[in-house]
Description:
Layout lengths: L1 H4 L4 H16 L3 E2 L12 E2 L6 E2 L3 E2 L5 H22 L4 H12 L11 H10 L12 H9 L6 H4 L3 E4 L7 E2 L6 E8 L13 E5 L4 E5 L1 E4 L2 E5 L8 E9 L5 E4 L8 E5 L2 E8 L8 E2 L11 E4 L20 E4 L16 E6 L11 E14 L7 E6 L7 E6 L11 E6 L11 E8 L4 E16 L16 H9 L2 E2 L16 E2 L1 H9 L3
Parallel strand pairs: 6-14
Antiparallel strand pairs: 1-2, 3-4, 5-7, 7-11, 8-9, 8-12, 10-11, 12-13, 12-14, 15-25, 16-19, 17-18, 18-25, 19-24, 20-23, 20-25, 21-22, 21-24, 26-27
Helix pairs in contact: 2-3, 3-4, 3-6, 4-5, 5-6, 8-9
Amino acid sequence: LVQVAGSGQGAYGEGMGDVMGVLITDDPNLALGFFGNCNQPLRNADNNCQFQQQGCSSCGSQIHDCGQLISGCVWSTRNELLATNPSTYLDILSNLAVNSILLHNGSSITPSITIDYLTLDDDDANLCNGTPHFSEISMGFGAHNMLALEVELPPLQFSFPEGLPDLISPQGDTTTQVLVDGCGVLGTAPQPDTGVLHLDTGAGFVAIPMTEVAPNVYDAVFPAVDCGTQVAYYFSAETTTGQEVVSPPGAPANSFAALSATGLQVVLEDDFEADSGWVVGAPADDASTGIWERVDPVGTPAQPANDHTPDPATMCFVTGQGSPGGPIGANDVDNGQTTLTSPVIDLLGAPNATISYWRWYSNDEGASPNADVFVVDISNNNGSTWTNVETVGPGGPQTSGGWIFRQFGVADFVAPTAQVRVRFIASDEGSGSLVEAAVDDFTVSEVLCDRSIPGDLDGDGTVGILDLLSLLADWGPCPDPPDVCPADLDGDGSVGILDLLTLLANWG
């Protein structure tokens, strides 16, 4: 189960093996008779192992010893649930324990597992107001020093009733609502009038105070930003004790993203369900396995089991198809690099074109983890020369798999031409690494920058005497039907005093 769900083994795998035994037998004694005595277990989930930052647990740091920490938490939670839910306690616990494997990464046992159980138990997407079995889970895991809610839960909760913008107006009139709430289980509350929008247009984050329109309800107003600019942003507020909390967690290293534009026009959209001319291989390629191929992935702990595109789509590019139920390193990249290159993309006359894609990259498994990188390059001369767009790794949070969205402006790297190409390079240049990569939903769009100014009737970017003369020449009712009546700025069917006032208000 641990392998199929994508975690490493180690202490977590050993501990979850014990948990499975506890769930099957409803007995804390594990491997009775292992030592030749049918009354003596190999290990006992009814234990007092305590989580420790150093050395894993008070029961020891070796994987079998440390594994007792999670089985102890499960058994203690079982006892709490038995008291409150005597007829369903085992069903409740089994669902939480088995499904928690899907939320875990790595091979360690830490208090983050407690949050996984609470997340699965939650029924309203808000852990701060508790969960149906919050008391039992918190007492069970807390008995082993695994609660640490103040570490795992943010003291303030941010929500966005209208959603978050991925396009913002170049004129600066985009507003989104931000709600800030305290965390009930931590007893924290927000300090009024401390909400801030942090915006980075390329020169670093700038703090812009938000407007509090109701208690702890804010309007975040984005300023004018040059059209075509990629914008990073995040939010912050303070607790009543002066602690700053950010959204998304980990900001500013993590942030939300938006594009300054009035719209996007799709030039190319490729979900890889059909062969569209992508090229596998390059002169420098020398990998012996894990060569890029377009497939419906079967998945390994390091490789996606499904493409990114919503059903019924199934296909994506991966570095070598694994085998169902096979080992984690089945057909991963070995002994060199493998390259996937797009067909030629004509972006001549598209100065604000953007390219986006979803990528998957895993290099944190194997005997020598985090030793390699995943490279994305772009060319505007059909591949004669290449410019690096991003290099993922060798370490960091984006080297553990998972579909991750990326978007960039073409002109930020090369001049848009009729011969644009993009390539993805996965490599295993060291020894003992386990490298897997995937790409899906590749999209090219032209950023629309409608900079029209009310009253700029000749479209020269300014409102002046020629626009005024044009408006006066059209004074009166518009033609019937009003096929061409650009001076009717208020759309009432005639050119009159209100249209004149609008033009004069935008003079210059």
